[in-house]
Amino acid sequence: xxxxxxxxxxxxxxxxxxxxxxVIAALGIAPGQHIADIGAGRGYFTLxxxxxxxxxxxxxxTDVDDAVIQQLRMRVSARKNxxxxxxxxxxxxxxxxxxxxxxxxxxxxxxxxxAAYLMKLRAALAPHGRIAVTHLRAMRPPLVAAAQAAGLFxxxxxxxxxxxxxxxxxxxxxx
Length: 175
Known about the structure:
The chain is of the alpha/beta class. It has one domain: Rossmann fold (3-Layer(aba) Sandwich), CATH 3.40.50. It has helices at residues 12-18, 20-27, 46-53, 66-75, 114-124, 140-149, and strands spanning 34-38, 58-63, 82-86, 99-105, 125-136, 152-158, 164-171. A 7-stranded mixed sheet has the order 3-2-1-4-5-7-6, sandwiched between helices. A hairpin with a 5-residue loop joins strand 6 (152-158) and strand 7. Helix 5 crosses helix 6.
């Protein structure tokens, strides 16, 4: 079990591979934004994202697993800007047009239909909203194909992470 880096229970080896501070910086989150952490698990990025949006922002963290959701709720219980939601495997559980940023970190390979799920995430984006995906480099080709099928384009890519990619996707109609 890996904890959140910089927070109790962190695993420095895991953080070295994942580079969480670099990922958060690359996301360009502004205080006050409304963001979502899809498939948040035990909250590897949740606390960092909560810090990034600040007290005026809101973070919605989702997962499909009851036990993980319970652990996540306990971890964030003192944070007023985090909402934890249990969702179905094909339903992101996000309001339409509401999110400045949606993060998927090492979860897209679990989706039964990546393109259909990305279409649902696209509908949840606010104007100029972005979807960020980070995963192992070997997982990039199916994600890129699904993004194109969902009408998303790669707005930017960070290739400086040791073993992972970070893609920022936006709706094709917004560029």
